[in-house]
Amino acid sequence: xxxxxxxxxxxxxxxRRLLPxxxxxxxxxxxxxxxxxxxxxxxxxxxxxxxxxxxxxxxRVLAVLxxxxxxxxxxxxxxxxxxxxxxxxGFLFGLATGVSAAVIGATIGSTLIFLVARTALGEPLLRRxxxxxxxxxxxxRDDAFSYLLFLRLVPAFPxxxxxxxxxxxxxxxxxxxxATALGIIPATFVFVFAGQGLDSVxxxxxxxxxxxxxxxxxxxxxxxxxxxxxxxxxxxALAALGLLALVPVIVKRLRARRSTAS
Length: 262
What we know:
Helix content is 79%, strand content 0%. By secondary structure, the chain is mostly helical.
C-alpha cells in the first residue's frame, strides 16, 4: 500500500516557500530605515557631490557597476528614491551609459522580486484559486508580453505592483524580462535626459539654500522633484505607446470573435 506523506511535509514546504519572501520583507525594512530616510535624495547628492564626482572620474567602470548594484537593491526592495537614481544616472554618466545602467539595474531588480514572489506565493495561489481567477490568469499569460509592456509604459501603475501581478499569474520568466526591459526604456530615457541638466539645478538650489540660511530661517532645504520631468504631454505620449502595445491583444480578440461568429 502506498504510504501517505507525513503531515509535517506540507508546513515545511510552505515554510521553505515563504522564507525568501520573509527575507525580502526584512531586508526591505532595513533598506528603508537606512536608505529611505533621505540617503537616496537630492540633498545627499549635493552633500557628497565632490566625493562622487571624484570616484566616477577615477573609477568609472566600478562606479557604473556600483550604480547598477544600488539600483538593483532599490528596485528589488522597493526603496524610495529609484526615480531620483535614474535622474542621477544621467548626471553622473551621461545619456547612453545612464540609460543602459538604469535599465539593467531596474530589470534585474524587478526580476529578483518577481522570482521570489512567484516561488513563494504565485504557484500556491494559482493552485488554490477559483475557476474565474484561473481564467483571468490564463488570459494574462496568453497575452503577457503586450499587457506587461502596457503596464511598464504607462507611469500610472506602481512599479513594485507590476513586478508582483505577473508572478501571481504564472507569467514566464523570459516574457517578464523582455517586456520589463523594453517597457521601461522610454521613461528611463526621459529621466536620464533630465539628469544631464541637473548641474544647473544644483547651482540654483544651492544659491536659494544659502540665501535662506542668510535670512536666518530654520526650514531651509535643498529640493528637487524628479517627477517634474513627467509633463502632461510626456504622460500622454507614454499612454499612447501603452495603448499601441495593446493593439495585438485587441486584434487577437476581434479575430477570435469573428471565428466564433462564423
